[in-house]
Amino acid sequence: MSKYIILGHENPDNDSIVSGYLLEKLMKRLGYDVEFVIPDEAISEENIMLANYCGLDPTSYQKEIPNDPSIKYILVDHHERIVPREIVAIIDHHPTDKDISCKYYQNERACSTSCLIAKDRERFFSLDDLKMTCLSAMVDTAAFHSNKTVVRDYLWVRSLCAKYGFNYEELMTTSMCPTDISDIEKASINGLKKHDLAGHKVASSFLHLPSPTANQEEINQMIEHLKTYIKEEGYDLFAFIVHDITNFKSTLYKIREDSIDTVQYDEYTSRGTRIIPELTEELKTYQKKKTTNS
Ligand SMILES: [Mn+2]
Questions:
Q1: Domain end point (choices 175, 204, 225)
Q2: Can you give the CATH number for the domain in which 227 is found?
Q3: Å from CA of 282 to ligand 1 middle
């Protein structure tokens, strides 16, 4: 009898981990000799935390890809991976134009691959399993805000939460990975990035907070800390971004040694695709003005 090895994608995210775990469980119940393996040496802290939240320890799956003539491979949450032998099944939700031929190929629009596996098969899974399926759908779609969101999956998640008493709001917040702000200095440089914007030395960081207004005092302390920080590190500007992960709004604090400007965004604003490009434009003009004046 063949042995099946289930593999997620490299640098596995929450959906990849949960899908592998769910499929292993389902196939075992159906009598297959199957094992979910995470061959990556490192799993991010965030993804360990998200899995732990629903009682899953992803590190227990970390090992090298077994390579034995009797082994067949199954991919979840992606359709490409170099494996030693035949891939017999793929379950995925990433659109592709590629011609993929394997014995079992399922690729459908879905909030997450874990939804594809668990939907219509609730009876095979525990409450924790279904809860982590709900969470992974949220993680994979930025809490149902990304254009990957599929309404029928969203409705299914809502119905599971209602049926089994999962705390929908708490899952939504958890899926957005709130920042630990117990250490003000550490939190103030969460996700620190350094940028050279139109010749200006800029740094940025962000917080994910379920209720920023409730933490305004801590935010103010962080701003004070960052004022000292930019002086010490020689930055012209620090872009400190506070995301409200309940109402999906963002606040940008543009911190300089002698001033603070605040910009409100009526959406969850991406640092990379909106804030940094906007700052670059602004700093270019700033440069020009300075040149013209002198
Ligand atoms: Mn996915």
A1: 175
A2: 3.10.310.20
A3: 36
pLDDT band of residue 294 (cuts 50, 70, 90) is very low
Residue 242 has pLDDT above 60, yes or no: yes
Q: Are residues 270 and 159 in the same domain?
A: no
Q: pTM value? A: 0.76
Number of domain units in the chain: 2
Residues 164 and 30 in one domain: yes
Cα 180 to averaged position of ligand 1 atoms, centre (Å): 25
pLDDT at residue 286, rounded to an integer? 76
What does the alpha-carbon distance between residue 122 and residue 107 come to, in Å, rounded to a whole number? 20
Residue range of the domain that includes 250: 184-293
Q: How far apart are CA 37 and CA 290, in angstroms?
A: 58
Residues 107 and 159 in one domain: yes
Q: What percent of the chain has pLDDT over 90?
A: 77
pLDDT at 60 over 50: yes
User: Rounded distance, CA 212 to CA 264, Å?
Assistant: 13
More confident call, 106 vs 98 = 106
Question: How many angstroms separate the alpha carbon of residue 200 from the centre of ligand 1?
Answer: 37
For 42, the 3-state DSSP assignment is coil
Question: Is 198 found in the same domain as 163?
Answer: no
| Burial class, 255, CB count within 10 angstroms (exposed 0-12 / middle 13-18 / buried 19+) | buried
33 and 61 belong to one structural domain:
yes
Check if the beta carbon of residue 2 is closer than 8 Å to that of residue 39: no
Looking at the DSSP bridge assignments, the partners of residue 160 are: none
CA 19 to centroid of ligand 1, rounded, Å: 8
